[in-house]
Amino acid sequence: MFYETEKNDHGLPYNPYKSIVVPRPIGWVSSIDRAGSVNLAPYSQFNNLGYDPPYVMFSASHKTHAGELKDSVANIVATGEFVCNMATHDLRDAVARSSEIVDPEVDEMAAVGLTPEASRMVAPPRVAESPIHLECKFYTSLILPGYDPLNTTHVVVGQVVGVHIHDDAFTEDGKIDTARLRPLARMGYQDYTSVDTVFEITPQGPMAEAMIAGMGGEAKGRP
Fold first, then answer.
1. Contact at 8 Å (CB) between 161 and 81?
2. Mean pLDDT, to the nearest integer, of 25-39?
3. Alpha carbon of 207 to those of 33, 50, 201, 217, 218: distances in Å?
4. Among 17, 71, 139, 189, which has the highest number of CB atoms less than 10 A from its own CB?
5. What's the CATH number where 30 sits?
6. Coil, strand or helix: which one is 108?
7. Is residue 4 part of a domain?
8. Phi-psi map region of 13: left, alpha, beta (phi>0 left; psi -120 to 50 alpha)
9. Which of 135, 149, 159 lies closest to 64 in space, CA to CA?
10. How many CA atoms lie within 13 A of 24 on its CB side?
């Protein structure tokens, strides 16, 4: 089959596009507004950008009214800080429930029974139950126009300035135990998945050593 995205003429009962670029990691973003009210929301348009320094990005559409920013975007642009908490299989219900609360006066972290934990370098709290947190400073934002004004997308990029990892999140050889943590990811429709299988593909050839160092990340400090 073939369809044009502007016409959306695929003839299917559900738009297939969100089931094509999968799985998508979930950025579980905690932020605060200028008054200090906490917001927590998951975003499946989320990923890592760069490593030295590391950046992360997530994107959000408008609220139901064109021009009205999602709370996370508005908070981050206003205060310049946020935290990305790892969403895991164990926390899947809390992740889903936190996406359903739209009242900016409601603290989603408290509403779904999670524990706020103070960050070190930014003001928004971390989700204590999450095994990994990325403390971020707002770097830039980008607006992507939609075919319909309601579908305008706001892309937020943050520089990661601090990383928290629970001590029990590592394997004996010092690697993050991804298969045990089971990071949550979005598929299409109402479907989710989680990482429970990890395998290696070792680089070969004349560039193997450099590729292994680059892909794995050398353990190095700064003078």
1. no
2. 96
3. 48, 21, 14, 15, 16
4. 71
5. 2.30.110.10
6. helix
7. no
8. alpha
9. 149
10. 21
Instruction: List % helix, strand, coil for the chain (3-state, nearest 5).
Output: 20, 35, 45
Any residues with CB less than 8 A from the CB of 45 and at least 6 apart, and which?
24, 58, 59, 60, 153
Contact indicator for 128, 83 with CB cutoff of 8 Å: no
Alpha carbon of 201 to those of 70, 107, 204, 211, 212: distances in Å? 40, 43, 9, 11, 10
Residue 1 maps to a domain: no
Is 10 a member of any domain? no
CB 30 within 8 A of CB 113: no
Distance between CA atoms of residues 32 and 79, nearest Å? 8
Alpha carbon of residue 118 to chain centroid: 19
Encode pLDDT of 76-131 as tens digits: 999 999 999 999 999 999 999 999 987 888 899 999 999 999 999 999 999 999 99
Give the pLDDT confidence of 187-208 residue by residue, as tens digits. 999 999 999 999 988 888 888 8
In sequence order, the 6+-apart residues with CB closer than 8 A to the CB of 3 are 9, 10, 11
Can you give the residue range of the structural domain that contains 90? Answer: 23-216
Domain count, the chain: 1
Q: Residue 37: what are its φ and ψ, rounded to 5°?
A: -70, 135
Q: CA 44 to CA 21: how far, in whole Å?
A: 11
pLDDT tens, residue by residue, 69-83:
889 999 999 999 999
For residue 219, the one-letter residue type is: A
Question: How far apart are alpha carbons 59 and 145 in whole angstroms?
Answer: 12
Q: What DSSP line would sit under 8-72, residue for residue?
A: T---SSS--GGGTS--EE-EEEEEE-TT--EEEEEESSEEEEEETTEEEEEEEE--SSTT---HH
